Amino acid sequence: MKDSYLSEFKKREYFNQCTNSDELEKLMNQKKIKAYIGFDCTAPSLHVGSLLQIMCLRLLQKHGHQPIVLLGGGTTRIGDPSGKDETRKILSEKEIERNIKNIQKIFKIYLKTSNPKTKPIFVNNYKWLGKLNYIKFLREIGKHFTINKMLNFESVKLRLEREQSLSYMEFNYMILQAYDFLELNKNKNCLMQIGGSDQWGNIVNGVDLIKRHSGKQVFGLTTPLITLASGSKMGKTEKGAVWLEKKFLSPYDYWQYWRNTDDRYVIKFLKMYTDLSLEKIEEIKNKDINELKKILASECTKMLHGVNEAKLSEKTAIQTFSEKSTGDGLPVIQIKQSEIEKNLDIINLILLSKLENSKSEIRRIIRNKGVKINNSTIEDEKLLILNSFFEKDKSFKLSLGKKRHVKVKLI
Length: 411
Known about the structure:
By secondary structure, the protein is an alpha/beta fold. It is built from 19 helices and 13 strands. It folds into three domains: 5-223, 3-Layer(aba) Sandwich (Rossmann fold); 250-322, Tyrosyl-Transfer RNA Synthetase, CATH 1.10.240.10; 332-410, Structural Genomics Hypothetical 15.5 Kd Protein In mrcA-pckA Intergenic Region, Chain A (Roll), CATH 3.10.290.10.
């Protein structure tokens, strides 16, 4: 018997909390519904930290339900205090609109658009939030919220307990998010909101608001916060965010990110972040851990960048680690002949490559024999980059440690 949406949701370890899981299970088994996830547009791309939510929408489609992608053109202008220690930088309206267009392209990679019954519905909450009449909003919506309850939400409590400022603008965020759910319920017949565990309070607010305002039952569903053994959040590395946009992060670096997954998370991430069936994962789970990491890396890269990029990334990794080769899929940094003539040294080359951004840290890595050119260890901190370093294709491989590599190309 085929799993229901909620059953597979739980088996893939997406489940954290649900407002009424028995009723939701019954509803989704009886009919196809619409459900939404909201994404604020604070950056020109999403990163791996948003991927779990995207996979939840992908799973909705798989089970014949229709995802609504809410791109927060309105709420991005406010800033969500959840999980934040300080007020977020306010972006210009042009920046927000540009970000929305870029982010929408990512969803069109992960979500299928051919079937009219399941293709994603894209909405921008600025469409309704931008037109709100403040007095009317307070009378019709604000009356359903108490300050006592709002002060008890985790996102607010943490900021106040730490004596970190929380602007009135941010304090309003939870009401606006609840209003989003109400709007989508009225105009799109949306019956569920999905979000990360840090959104639970905001989601419950929306469920309660709809019940009070129109007497309808809707549902909230949350996913767990993925925190790695290192204590860092999913999608953050020593080099920064793991972007889902090719121009910010190469397919090879994306493949390598998944290849470097901690052993403890490999099976979990195969369930969460790939399309492999649960039966297939069960079948392969006892394979060599490094083989499983390659499967994880290739499946994740294939989904975002396509089969060819996934194969090229794996081939490049083999070449990079096993052979004296730059590998075709390595990220490329270009340097001009004029820079060589100005006595470009190894430290400044590494800064240019963005493999590391601290001179003192680069010196430490050199002293520990962690810097290599074409697999040859560099021990001289003052080494000048010479034309003779470049091979026939006018390039060489620059490595920091075992995991960070780029191709340096002379132009």
